[in-house]
């Protein structure tokens, strides 16, 4: 199913969720510094770069395209961290990947067109900032810390077809103490 906007096509899965893709962009394979970008809607707030998938686009390709457009970086696409659902105000289903940055452009599409900014954050600081600005994005980094960091031996999450995918919802992390979320 697709809805058309003046300059983009939105794609939806069979359950009516908007299909999105994003990347946690890390400065190095140690995954201790993550790149956040300013929101196009609220320029004083930081978010994880990502956006809607185009028709016929694979999630990994969409994630790479989105970080190139929004953050002006290229890199090595790593593991699929998970598929996150946002049900409350919008029905989004976001494929979140890990990307190790290998190239940083001086000027990029969103910096030129809308004045978007980017900044490196230590993971702990990024979680705090995102909890204030975009709590669903903080969940991505919290999941990374819980079980998918490269240092704990679980560096690969198997790729699953859409019908067997791993979903993480706010309800699954909200009951945990913040010290382990």
From TrEMBL:
Keyword list (alphabetical) reads: Cytoplasm, Hydrolase, Magnesium, Metal-binding, RNA-binding
Q: Which cofactor does it need?
A: Mn(2+); Mg(2+)
The EC number(s) attached to this protein equal 3.6.1.52
InterPro entries associated with the record: DDP-like_NUDIX, NUDIX_hydrolase-like_dom_sf, NUDIX_hydrolase_CS, NUDIX_hydrolase_dom
The reactions it catalyses are: diphospho-myo-inositol polyphosphate + H2O = myo-inositol polyphosphate + phosphate
Chain ranges of the Nudix hydrolase domain: 18-145
- One annotated GO biological process: diadenosine hexaphosphate catabolic process
Q: Where in the cell is it found?
A: Cytoplasm
Gene Ontology annotations for the cellular component aspect, listed alphabetically: cytoplasm; nucleus
So which domain of life are we looking at? Eukaryota
| Primary location | cytoplasm
Annotated CDD domains: NUDIX_DIPP2_like_Nudt4
GO: which molecular function terms? Answer: bis(5'-adenosyl)-hexaphosphatase activity; bis(5'-adenosyl)-pentaphosphatase activity; diphosphoinositol-polyphosphate diphosphatase activity; endopolyphosphatase activity; metal ion binding; snoRNA binding
According to its UniProt record, which protein family does this protein belong to?
Belongs to the Nudix hydrolase family. DIPP subfamily.
Descriptive protein name: diphosphoinositol-polyphosphate diphosphatase
Question: Source species, please?
Answer: Propithecus coquereli
